[in-house]
Amino acid sequence: MTTSETRRPLSSLVIAAACLIAGAAGGWFWQSHRGVANKAEIEQVVHDYLLEHPEILPDAMQALQKKQDAKQLAGVRGEVEKAWPGQVLGNPDGKVTLVEFTDFACTYCRHSVEDVEALIAANPDLKVVVRQLPIIAPESADAARMGLAAAAQGKYALFHKAMFAIGRPDKAGIEAAAKAAGVDLAKAQAAMADPRYENELNRNIEIARQLGFSGTPSWVVGDRLLSGAVGQDKLAKAIAEARG
């Protein structure tokens, strides 16, 4: 995965934002010159305005992205923010919810662990819902299932940190992380035979598809959808906006 937002190409947002501005400017021009304006005149006004005020494009792009994010979240927010029992970091009763779609085989997810820990420390009201999205390596699903089993035993936070500290998951590494977290391996193995575990992973993949996420890490906070290792500052800004 790249470290930039990848859900929608920047060029598409620029074009869409320009069209948004063009529509607004065109409406103003039409009202001001009713019966006189034609298509060429409107296009020239918009062209000149954008050249004189290019600083409005970032604001327009951000407003458009927020609108699109809110539309994609409509109807699925409750499902997105509902955690698998125990698979929560930070404050379980937090006022603000940050959802992270993650894969234990993802390098950028590993790099984001410290960012999330810093955000939790700085925001006592932050609830972090972790959604396993095992799409990178064949062993990703095995690590994800163990993560769910660890959560069921109240050991998820410890397993999360231990698994990412080990590196790319394999059978030995997954068991080592589980032992380090204090997971009862026999109990975990028995639990993972439950179809609910596989259903949860499939559900996460479907939710990610609905939200337009194609990789990890991906994030949901408030009305914002973010893709990639966007960094602590960008996540902090989104958390502040969600808090209102």
Record keyword descriptors for this entry.
single chain, 244 residues, alpha+beta, Glutaredoxin, 2 domains, 5-stranded mixed β-sheet, 11 helices, elongated, disordered N terminus
Describe this structure in words.
- With 244 residues, the protein is an alpha+beta fold.
- The chain folds into two domains: 10-72, no CATH class; 78-243, Glutaredoxin (3-Layer(aba) Sandwich).
- Helix content is 60%, strand content 10%.
- It is built from eleven helices and five strands, in the order ααααββαβαααααββα.
- The protein has helices at residues 10-32, 39-52, 56-73, 77-81, 107-122, 140-152, 156-166, 171-180, 185-191, 195-211, 232-243; strands at 88-90, 96-102, 126-132, 218-221, 224-227.
- A five-stranded mixed sheet has the order 1-3-2-4-5.
- A hairpin with a 2-residue loop joins strand 4 (218-221) and strand 5 (224-227).
- Helix 6 packs antiparallel against helix 7 and helix 7 (156-166) packs across helix 8 (171-180).
- The longest helix is centred in the N-terminal third of the chain and has 23 residues, at 10-32.
- It is elongated and about 75 Å long.
- 34% of the residues are buried.
| N-to-C CA distance | 31 Å
Strand content: 5-15%
The topology string of helices and strands comes to HHHHEEHEHHHHHEEH
Record field, number of beta strands: 5
